């Protein structure tokens, strides 16, 4: 059956979700679970590339809610309540609202929608912009049917990795995976800088370092050995790698990463208490 998916707020994240689904629908035209996609964005010009990709442009948030069964809300957190109010007349028990807004609780979403339809919280990370995101989905609303949960897992699974988490784990997810690209880019920056120090051009160094991360990530995905084992495999006795790794161990890189994630988690919990 065709799934009707709409998005209100088609900026970076909403646009990436619609574009990813449109790409997927184009690649799997023959499959039964095709998507009918629509969207609305305040600044109309942002809809142009999405329209070219097959997304139907709607004249208002209300029209999105009328024409979709799964309604993704991807406006900024402070705009969320107003947008839910706008589309409220088209909501009913057969629609589902999916918010990607950081720090907006299921409780608030349900309240703004007068508890008329199920609500879902979703937390993506920025690699979603290139079709390789990790999405946390909170499917705890008792109004959600089994079929609807499966449809949502399937839909977000097409955009990257999708994990189902209880809402109480959302801050931890944000601290580890939402913030994660910042930790990875910081490590990449250090390695690119060392490449330049050793005489490579910046462009060469960046190209090699990004390939290094992609290749290492693929190895960690495909080889179930403990990460310490994968690391030790690179360290020949008396060789150059162990000389470098000794410096990282002395500086406590692993402990630093743990501290960084715990600090982000503590800050996230504080923000969640204040409502974003
Ligand atoms: N970007 C990320 O990596 C990321 C990660 C996790 C969660 N999120 C969440 O995703 C949401 C969107 O973030 P973003 O980075 O994609 O921001 P963004 O690029 O600014 O996108 C928000 C879009 O919403 C549009 N908009 C504002 N009010 C609207 C309304 N009443 N009706 C329709 N469209 C409206 C804006 O239109 P204009 O073009 O007119 O400004 C803009 O295009 C946020 O809630 C954020 O917490 C983002």
From TrEMBL:
Amino acids binding NADP(+): 74-77
Alphabetized GO MF terms: pyrroline-5-carboxylate reductase activity
EC numbers on record: 1.5.1.2
GO terms under biological process: L-proline biosynthetic process
Keyword Amino-acid biosynthesis attributed: yes
PANTHER family per record: PYRROLINE-5-CARBOXYLATE REDUCTASE, PYRROLINE-5-CARBOXYLATE REDUCTASE 3
Protein name, entry field: Pyrroline-5-carboxylate reductase
Organism: Desulfovibrio intestinalis
Lineage of the species this protein comes from: Bacteria, Pseudomonadati, Thermodesulfobacteriota, Desulfovibrionia, Desulfovibrionales
